Each structure stands twice: as structure tokens, then as C-alpha cells.
Amino acid sequence: MGTEILRYAAFTDRGHGGNPAGVVLDARDLGEAQMQRIAAEVGYSETAFVRPGDTPGRFAVRYFSPRAEVEFCGHATVATAVAMAERGEPGAVLFETPVGEVPVRTRRDEAGELVGTLTSAPTHTRPVDPEVLDAALTALRWSGDDLGTDFPAHVGFAGNEHLLLAAGSRERLARLDYDFDALGALMQAEGWTTVHLFWRESPTVFHARDPFPPGGVVEDPATGAAAAAFGGYLRALALVDGEPEVTVHQGVDMGRPSLLQVDLSTPHGRIAVTGAANVIR
Prior knowledge:
single chain; Diaminopimelate Epimerase, Chain A, domain 1; eight-stranded mixed β-barrel
């Protein structure tokens, strides 16, 4: 019998859009080369591979993009938890990932849709080096005038690192036309998973776009790991006036509207990110 590969869209917005993820719920017989081959064949930004842990409710999870293994992936985590819930797995599970333990719980929202909440690794953030920022702006084909003045350029971490850059306007965010090879090389050298470009619509509502050339993807429609790093950044720099939760809209400009709820009140330096997931039919 061949390996069963499930396909889900995570962080959907009222059942639409979201970020596609592959899910393999039983990867016990798969080696690393096989997982990489399957991820390339699936072609989504990430595919999650699951093996049972030592005790009930614990699972070892690895993530592969079409090009390489990724240490953590938020949308594939939510997709995997929802796939498990649909098959009778309890609402709270623990994923053992390359970045450590990631608790995930699932529930049905008011509309009856299954949603998953991941709790990230402890977050931290730091200013980006000015020379590196200049290189990133050049690759993005942005100038310093394109940056928003209320949000300093940082590198945020929530299991992996993301460059966090504020756009000065919604129009600037909508115009994404970057040098794929140059940005990919810079991100590879700096160890960034995505560049999280964002614009604030209101005190607690943001729009975001995430170039992902290291994974062979021009743009990610919804990025749970980046949303967690972004939440840690907002909290650490007190950029949302103590509000406990923010909403991130992503994927709108690429026709895949996605919705991520980011809880800044999570203890122990962690951030919780919630979103729905649906089977891709």
C-alpha cells in the first residue's frame, strides 16, 4: 500500500483561501530522502510527516518544503492537527518538532468549523543589521521611504527566524515584485525562513505578505510561524498598547485570503496562533 498523502488548506477565511499543506499521518516507514521526494511531488510550501511518539497524544513531526527540510511550519501544524481531529484524535496533542515541543489543540468554532491553535516556541526579536536591511530592501526593490515609520525593522524568532518589515502604505504592500534569486540568497545566508511584510489597518488588524524563496515559493498565502514571530515582536516592543490579540490577513493580494488570530497573552514567552483548516477537494 502506498503512502497516504492528505491535502489541507490552513488558515482559511470562512472556508476560502488558506495555505495548502501536505500531511502524511503515518511516516514511520519513510526515510528522509523519501520525505523530501514526496514534498517535492506534492509541491506545496510544506508537507508535514508524522510518527507516533512514546506516549498517547505525542507525535514526532517533521516538515519539508519542495527544496529542503524546514525546522517548523505553522500552517502545516494546524493542518495536521485538524486532520487528526477529523480522525478521532483528542483535541489536545503535543508535537515533537525539530524546534522543540509544540502544543496544539483543536475545537469547533461557532460555525462548526474545525480550528487549530498552535503554541509556538519561546519568541525573541532583535534589530536587523543596517547593512543587511539595505541588502533586503534592494532585493525587494524597496527604498527606505517605503518603510513604515512606527515599526522598526527586526528579525523575529518563534521556532525559526523571519525578517519583519513594515510597509508605509497598503499600496506599497500590494506591489510585490522582488528579485527572487537575490532575496533567496540573502535569506539563505541570514537563516531567515520568510520575509514578513506587514501593514497596520487598525490598532489590532494587520495585513501581511510573506516571500518564501528558500522554499522555492514566491509567496506564502498564510504563515503561522511568521505570525507567531510577529506576535512576539509586537509584544516585546509594546507596539499594540497591551491588546491581547491581533488579527493578520494574509494571501489577499494573491487571491488566497487567509486569516490568522495571534494571541499575545500566551505565557512563558510563547505566542498562540489560531486558524481554520479544510480538506482540499
